[in-house]
Specification:
By secondary structure, the chain is mostly helical. The chain contains 11 helices and no strands.
Length: 279
Amino acid sequence: MRAPLALRAAIISLLLFVGLIVVWHIGTKQTGPTLKMDPEYAKLMGSTVTQGKSAMPGPGDVGAKIWQHLQDPFYDRGTNDKGIGIQLVYSIARVLTGYLLALAAALPIGFLIGMSPLMARALDPFIQILKPISPLAWMPLALYTIKDSSISAIFVIFICSVWPMLLNTAFGVATVRREWLNVAKTLEMRPVRTALRVILPAAAPTILTGMRISIGIAWLVIVAAEMLVGGTGIGYFVWNEWNNLSITNVMVAILCIGLVGMLLDQLMARLQRVVAYAD
């Protein structure tokens, strides 16, 4: 009897993970250039000048640093010395604030575009021009006008995550079955009631797809934004640790960024399954 698909996939993932750790360990265990490095520079880079020791941290070094962070992730010893837990909380708070503001703007505008071909044509040029602009291009303008680094980062999250939600909402609303709308007209339902009782449930899976894409974009953007504006956040933590030449901490932060991004994506995927319906 064959094992369930989920179990087989988990076994393959585990084997790939173990293989990656082994390759990583072998790749950082022996190297030549480290022996020629100046001892003081090697110390700054977080490595020891010993036979066969690499300047790049191995899995054991990263694991030990993760354990060190887990023992006290929320400490606060000043501006440039905060725990990685605090930095993640700052980043997640900014992401959720900008994301919810984008959701509040995208849903009504998306409904308007989806229900009105006239407005869809009128707003399309603006959407097509603004949508491809990089978040890094928005940041200087935001800093100049808002003059607050944290609010500027939230603005960049908003402006970059609004488009997938808006376009998916418009598409979902525009593709609602005509028969359902005809039934609503037959029952003389008011437009607001039709939108809430007929269009919204029908378009919900498509809307959630846009929301799932947007949360990934928001998490990508906040790391880049915090590297530029500084202060707090996981992006600033990465940049600060790089300036301190702590490659081990940089790798720990990269792992945390990936894990939080995965959790946010899985949360949206669960919401997608909740609102999914069978045709």
